[in-house]
DNA sequence: ATGGTCGGCAACCGA
């Protein structure tokens, strides 16, 4: 069977629910992982997702900031929420799909919203950057994110780091800009390496090619400037690497009316 | 070199 997964930082799920519906009707992923829902769980637009065919929902929201959600057409069996850096921030939710749906092994899916880290790339002067680095250190130390048993694993989300040279529009001009500083790139790649994760985008698109999933709201013309960054990621365990049959970035969504500054990133797996 | 724009929620904070 084929399962399709999308990750999208929606920057308010309530404000942009019509854009979500537009994407879901066109792309029909089986599973949608959202970040920055900015929505308490009791205000999440459940009915709209149900009408669209997404009846299974795992929520970790909070008022005003952050917030993650997984909505699915396929039932999942268990859900989990992890906290990092002793904060109650809603930055993680996971679900496990069982073999009942036709998979040859269970599949654990982690959805993350890593802290953005503020503006000043020095942890001694900027507590938000210190928090981001500590968050990445905790991800590295988290054994649940070191997939090594018989299950399949995926880790998706807005990781707020563009780790490779061509994950940003200008490596040279971004070296001191939070999201592409050497220390956070190294830490994110450490999380990836210790878990044995495969970066789906970079397994399919050469490192020499520019790839972006985010374009700033502050550009007068985002498409003309094209000063993007690849902040949104889909990682899979080695057991799934050869089963990825499609990967796409829906860049057109950045040009929709009142868009998120992030676009949907989608991978299909043959399970 | 600097400031540029969003969303939440009601003055700024976070991005």
Task: Show the helix and strand layout.
Blueprint: E1 2-9, H1 17-27, E2 31-35, H2 46-51, E3 56-60, E4 68-72, E5 78-80, E6 92-97, E7 107-113, H3 127-141, E8 152-158, H4 171-174, H5 182-194, E9 198-199, H6 200-204, E10 214-215, H7 222-225, E11 228-229, E12 232-236, H8 238-241, E13 244-249, E14 265-270
Parallel strand pairs: 1-2, 7-8
Antiparallel strand pairs: 1-14, 2-4, 3-4, 5-6, 6-7, 8-12, 9-12, 10-11, 13-14
Helix pairs in contact: 3-5
This protein binds one DNA strand of 15 nucleotides through loops.
Mean pLDDT: 97
User: How much of the sequence is in beta strands?
Assistant: 25-35%
N-C termini distance:
5 Å
The helical percent reads 10-25%
Q: Largest sheet, order of strands side by side?
A: 3-4-2-1-14-13
The CATH topology turns out to be: Deoxyribonuclease I, Chain A
Query: How many beta-strand runs?
Result: 14
| Class by SSE composition | alpha+beta
CATH superfamily: Endonuclease/exonuclease/phosphatase
Order of helices and strands: EHEHEEEEEHEHHEHEHEEHEE
The low-confidence parts are: none
CATH class, named Alpha Beta
Count the helices. How many?
8
Throw out a few tags for this protein.
single chain, 271 residues, alpha+beta, Deoxyribonuclease I, Chain A, six-stranded mixed β-sheet, 8 helices, 14 strands, globular, DNA-binding
How does this model look, in words?
By secondary structure, the protein is an alpha+beta fold. The chain has a single domain, classed as Endonuclease/exonuclease/phosphatase (Deoxyribonuclease I, Chain A). The strands form 3 sheets. A 6-stranded mixed sheet has the order 3-4-2-1-14-13. A 6-stranded mixed sheet has the order 5-6-7-8-12-9. The chain has a two-stranded antiparallel sheet with strand order 10-11. α3 runs parallel beside α5. The termini are close together. The mean pLDDT is 97. It binds one DNA strand of 15 nucleotides through loops.
């Amino acid at each position: 069977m084929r399962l399709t997964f999308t990750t999208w930082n929606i920057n308010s799920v309530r404000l942009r629910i019509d854009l979500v519906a537009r994407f879901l009707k066109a792309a029909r992923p089986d599973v949608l992982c959202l970040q920055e829902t900015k929505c308490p769980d009791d205000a999440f637009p459940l009915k709209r997702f149900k009408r669209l065919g997404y009846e299974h929902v795992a929520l970790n929201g909070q008022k005003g900031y952050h917030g993650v959600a997984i909505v699915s057409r396929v039932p999942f069996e268990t859900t989990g929420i992890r906290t990092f850096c002793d904060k109650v921030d809603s930055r993680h939710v996971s679900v496990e799909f069982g073999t009942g749906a036709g998979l040859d092994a269970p599949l654990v899916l982690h959805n993350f919203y890593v802290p953005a880290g503020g503006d000043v790339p020095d942890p001694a002067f900027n507590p938000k950057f210190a928090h981001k680095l500590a968050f990445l250190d905790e991800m590295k130390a988290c054994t649940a994110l070191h997939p090594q048993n018989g299950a399949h694993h995926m880790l998706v989300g807005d990781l707020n780091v563009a780790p490779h040279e061509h994950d940003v529009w200008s490596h040279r001009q971004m070296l001191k800009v939070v999201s592409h500083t050497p220390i956070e790139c190294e830490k994110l790649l450490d999380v990836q390496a210790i878990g044995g994760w495969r970066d789906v985008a970079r397994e399919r698109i050469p490192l020499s090619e520019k790839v972006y999933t985010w374009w700033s709201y502050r550009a007068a013309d985002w498409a003309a400037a094209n000063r993007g960054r690849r902040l949104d990621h889909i990682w899979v365990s080695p057991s799934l690497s050869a089963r990825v049959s499609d990967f796409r970035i829906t860049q057109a969504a950045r040009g929709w009316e009142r868009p998120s500054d992030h676009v949907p990133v989608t991978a299909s797996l043959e399970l």
